[in-house]
UniProtKB/TrEMBL annotation:
<feature type="region of interest" description="Disordered">
    <location>
        <begin position="158"/>
        <end position="255"/>
    </location>
</feature>
<feature type="compositionally biased region" description="Polar residues">
    <location>
        <begin position="177"/>
        <end position="199"/>
    </location>
</feature>
<protein>
    <recommendedName>
        <fullName>Carbohydrate-binding module family 19 domain-containing protein</fullName>
    </recommendedName>
</protein>
<feature type="compositionally biased region" description="Low complexity">
    <location>
        <begin position="229"/>
        <end position="251"/>
    </location>
</feature>
<keyword id="KW-0732">Signal</keyword>
<feature type="compositionally biased region" description="Acidic residues">
    <location>
        <begin position="216"/>
        <end position="225"/>
    </location>
</feature>
<feature type="signal peptide">
    <location>
        <begin position="1"/>
        <end position="17"/>
    </location>
</feature>
<feature type="compositionally biased region" description="Low complexity">
    <location>
        <begin position="200"/>
        <end position="215"/>
    </location>
</feature>
Length: 345
């Protein structure tokens, strides 16, 4: 009896002491909704959605530690072409501090370089409450490379806090912009540097961690006059499934080929699960959610209420894109190419 009790207690202690890793995520498209609305109100046109989509995708787990800051710089760059719109700059400052997804419930490393725009000086992302405050992605303990924000000499205190939320980390999955309208910095209009051309148009770049291919593209690269879903997760299609759907024609009737290749991708996506083998950084749709391969398996991101993830045909060039849209829109776009058989052919 004593032996049985000892074994039971030892087993309980072992289970209790085992590290529990969970993925901490969010609806990333919500992070730029207010910025995009301010941009639209400032007559930013098609660039608003393009910059918003490129920006919120940097909150996924795969992009590098400075991609979010670079995206916030692009948001500020565009604001400055629109009479330095104060709301756009404010929401860009808050976006720069939004927590990023963590695939293993570890804190996410901080960028180690200065932003281009002085409006972003001293800003760094908060962490989610479920993130381990003492260990960062890569099993790096506090004090190691990337665990202290650029320009600081001591760890963040309280751990997980940021200028917009100095009391500590925020609730898992929540949006900082819904919790505060104060970015925690005084206003400034100076710039550290610029990547704008002579006409002042900001450079819009998708995350470097997002692979691309000749046969697929994102909605961000299409003709700005074409409709882009408001909450689209426009990412380059680069999964093994996507690679097998290379357009059969790059000239002539590429629209039909695009529609048929989108159907092939959607049919292949319907067979995938989160445990399907994949190549690091590639994208797909899994169970109607946008998915990115992290650590050899798919990490999914909900598209939001009423939306599904689907491969869609490009309109002005050969190729396909992976995006979140409505089922009706996906069907209409594929049907418009002349392809028959719905989403999967």
């Amino acid at each position: 009896m004593q032996f049985t009790t000892f074994v039971a207690l030892a087993l309980a202690a072992s289970v209790h002491g085992a590290p529990v890793h969970k993925r901490i995520a969010q609806v990333i498209s919500d992070s730029t909704t207010k910025w995009e609305a301010a941009c639209d109100a400032a007559s930013g046109g098609a660039q608003c959605n393009q910059v918003a989509v490129a920006s919120f995708s940097t909150l996924l787990a795969a992009p590098g530690p400075c991609e979010q800051q670079n995206a916030a710089d692009n948001m500020v760059d565009l604001a400055k072409t629109l009479s330095s719109n104060a709301d756009m700059i404010k929401f860009a400052q808050i976006f720069a501090q939004q927590p990023r997804n963590s695939p293993t419930s570890l804190s996410v490393p901080y960028c180690q370089s200065a932003p281009r725009n002085a409006e972003l000086n001293g800003l760094y992302q908060c962490q989610f409450q479920g993130d381990n405050p003492t260990t960062f992605v890569g099993s790096i303990t506090v004090g190691g490379n990337g665990t202290i924000p650029f320009g600081m000499s001591a760890p963040v205190s309280p751990a997980g806090s940021c200028p917009a939320n100095p009391s500590g980390p925020i609730a898992d999955g929540s949006q900082l912009v819904d919790l505060t309208q104060n970015p925690g910095v005084s206003g400034t209009t100076a710039s550290n540097d610029t990547t704008s051309g002579s006409n002042g148009t900001p450079t819009v770049a998708t995350p470097s961690a997002t692979p691309s291919s000749d046969s697929s593209d994102s909605d961000c690269g299409e003709d700005p006059s074409e409709p882009v879903p408001t909450a689209s997760l426009a990412m380059a299609a680069s999964s093994p499934a996507a690679a097998s759907a290379t357009p059969s024609s790059t000239s002539g009737n590429f629209k039909l080929a695009n529609g048929q290749n989108a159907q092939k991708l959607n049919a292949q996506f319907s067979t995938l699960t989160v445990t399907s083998p994949c190549t690091e950084g590639t994208n797909a749709c899994v169970n109607s959610a946008f998915a990115q391969c992290v650590g050899g398996s798919y990490v999914t991101q909900s598209c939001g209420s009423g939306l599904i993830c689907a491969a869609l045909p490009l309109v002005n060039s050969a190729g396909t894109s992976i995006t979140c849209t409505t089922n009706a829109d996906a069907l209409a776009r594929i049907s418009a190419t002349g392809a028959q058989g719905g989403l999967t052919g």
